[in-house]
Design a protein that fits this description.
This protein is of the alpha+beta class. The protein has 24 helices and 25 strands. Strand 1 and strand 2 (69-72) form a beta hairpin. It is globular. It starts with a helix and ends with a helix.
Amino acid sequence: MLRNYLKIAWRTLKRNKTYGIINVVGLTLSITSCILLFSFIAFHIDFDGFHENSNQVYRIVTEQQRETLSYQKGVPSPLGDVVRNEFDFEEQIARTVTFDELQINVNQDLKFIEDEGVALVEPSYFNIFNFPLLEGRFTDEFKEPSKAYITESIAKKYFGDVDAIGKTMKMDNSVNFTVIGILKDLPNNTSQKAEIYLSYATLKEYNDWYIKSDSWGGISSNMQCFIKLKSGVNPEQVEAAMAPFPERYRPNSSNVHTYKLQPLSDMHFNANYGGPMPKRTLWTLGIIGVFLMISACLNFINLATAQVGNRLKEVGVRKSLGSKKGQLFWQFMSETALIAFSATCLGFALAFMLLPSLNELFNSSISSSIFLDIRILAFVIGVFIFSTIVSGGYPGLLLSNFKPIAALKGKLAQVSVGGFNLRRSLIVVQFVISQVLIIGMLIIIKQMQFNQNVDLGFDKEAIINIPVASGMEMSDLKVFKERISAIPTVESSTVCLGAPSSDGNWGTSIRFKGKTEPEIFSMNVKAGDADYVKTFGLEILAGRNISVSDTANELLINETFAKKMNYTTAQEAIGKRLKVASVDNMEIVGVVKDFHDQSMHSDISAVGIGSFNDVYYNFAVKVNPNNMSQTLKDLEGVWASMNPDAVFTYQFVDEVLATFYETEQTILKLIQIFTLIALLIGAMGLYGLISFLVERKTKEIGVRKVLGSSNSAILWLFGKEFSVLLIVSFVIAAPISWWLGSKWLEDFTFQIPIKPSLFIIALAISALIACVSIGFKSFRAALMNPVESLRSE
């Protein structure tokens, strides 16, 4: 019986090629999109899920209550030791310190910059995380300084086919270390990105601040602490035990610190602690996938019900010869299943082929092996079943329920065979989906354009950021600055912590002279020399710039700082003295105009600019953009002459700022692609539907033309129906889009207004798509010779 169903289904589809092709292509596009979206979502949902008992693993994080609540993924470096020594909650606890973009020297000639950096970890780290060893063993040797485990990829990169065990390398031109083990390559979806793991004891030689038992006074995001709880221990118990730590170890701090346990499964998604992929983003992508699937199924139902009239006699003959309702229903379902199966196979193959392009476009690393994952295969089967049932269910019931006599006589009204009332509703739903996606895309585009083009309050164009090399003293920094200043295309340079807006922020408490208590707000320190203002084009509103000095004794503040102190004028702040971190008696000598010191997600902070030379980590060099390649060669030449052992690296400041919005850029690209696919699916559906309507109205068009109707009147016969549906869908889509857009924009402190023009543009795009979809067939119908159209009937 099944074989017979499929044979008849194949013959039916061969007779109706347009119907079959439109449905196969539409379903293929939607299934391909759904598979790719599900793969993307599954990849991110699985982050860090490969570790054994990952539900027992937490990261200890810090909440800081000053003027506002802020979040820090780091903790004071002694905290891990205190928890280990005083309590018995954990199976394992491990501190890690990660330094990004460090240079590794394999030998005199081979030097690499490791973008993911180097992690210095305690031995228990490998008891918490599941990083299997390929060579070597986890032994007490890792408690000693200068011992390292590296991944298989790093070993091959540095040593080729030569055994890496026992080989010695140098980190940051300062610390030698020896490889004692080779780790299996880490999965792509892990938050632990480093591929070189040094023993924690190495910090004694490299940076001993992280191992001092009294280093409670500062929190660095580099320092993180992971804990694996014993079975049955609740995170709340550990948090309660850590509650007295701030008062005990930081009694003079103006910040109210609270230490919390963040589940490992939350790290990739929680934006408060630097998680790059909020879960609501994945929900959004999942909903888009559902929309695409529904849109393709609506096309199928629309075209199937439009075709019912052509199959009435077939149904009448079959019922007269004894066919039952169930047989007719399953006959139509077999046709649907054949289309859905073909689309599913094509969609799966297309998704597999497009995955590398998806990875390249979104800078992701989803492995093609994910298509062998049982969940992906189950999802594909589920999509096939869903599309078959949703697309074929109603038309199948419709066909199987006709009375044979009425069907043979052709007396069934169009409404009774699922006519325009149903199809109107389905078209409206499709238009709503398309317009919601278009408006959402336009809102994101406008916000991203705003982020890129808004006046940040400082110059960002043609400024090159060059990291300071390890071992460079203050005298070396001065010499390098003098030598690059001699390059004709260099307009200005400064040695600093970073650009005015960066993710490398140093927040600290301040206390004015004569006061016993620190201020309730913290200050964002922008360390820079006297040329910082000139290089970044900051505007001084009152007072003067800081003087040339090797020590921090003068300070520039911004307008927000002055406002927080309730100064009525900027001039009022000049001459005030305060203590910043451990630097006492600093004098405010000037006030600069506010600039965005963080991304558009955050408000402008109270900022202080001064010569804190112990955190001079970068050179910022403003250059003439003409002949940029020669300028970079000249800069590299000066660098090589002064730092022959250090690799020359640089990044443009505007590129650094663009990294603030990487997640939003990814979402924008995805929505642009899938909005285009949704519009294409909808356009194909409209084209198929108008084809059937033109065929159905051939005689009516001929009669109208004989009676004197113009071509424009014939075109309007088709256009007015879809125009009304377009307006109705817009009325539904507009408030939905406004609400969704407003919720998305809540993540930005500085945001665009949602203007009516965005909705008008979306309506115009939808109208254009509809016109193009139905225009060709409608135009041909209007130009048809009435004699031929009447004869064809």
